[in-house]
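I am going through a labmate's work and have reached the protein record below. What it holds is a sequence and that sequence's fold in token form. Please read both lines and tell me whether the tokens look consistent with the sequence. Do not assume that whoever made the record got everything right. Thanks in advance; the entry in question is below.
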Amino acid sequence: MMVDFQSSGIERYDMSRLDQANLDYLQKYWLDADALSRNWSNLLDGIFVLQEGGVGVHSGLGAESRLGGGLFTAGEFAEFKHRATESGASCFAVVEYIGQKGWTDDSSPSFFRFAYPLSVSWDEIAASCSIAYDVFGRPIRAFAVIADNGQVGKYADNDAPRPYELIFGYTYEDEAL
């Protein structure tokens, strides 16, 4: 996994500059290119539509469109985990969209991709190291989030001129925002 991360060439995340907390996080959660292709790409392709100017969700999923501004808050993540667990899922993936032509486009391996068990805590995924904070705590980048059964997920584009998110399989209350 660490070799795969090194070869990704994600800007500002050279292995020699990462502390032990970041290395431990990558060791536990990094989704290497082979596992992304084998376990997640068909699921991602079946849910998300990669198109010029952004990502959409296939019609028929009943996706809710909302203003964006971050991947999750702690309350939103708790609701996502609850609904995903309720649907029978056991894990989920978070895959960054940087304009690649496909989720496994190896011409541009320079994007974040992680797989987490649904038992993971908010503090672990969002605040245990600087990479976690960059993915979950900062309102930057664009990410697809999908449960392993494809029934619950979201797409959040925080880099769009008008940040937005598309949610399917669950909703969250306004007070959680």
The mean pLDDT is 86. The longest strand covers residues 91-96. Residues 33-47 form the longest helix (15 residues). The radius of gyration is 15 Å.
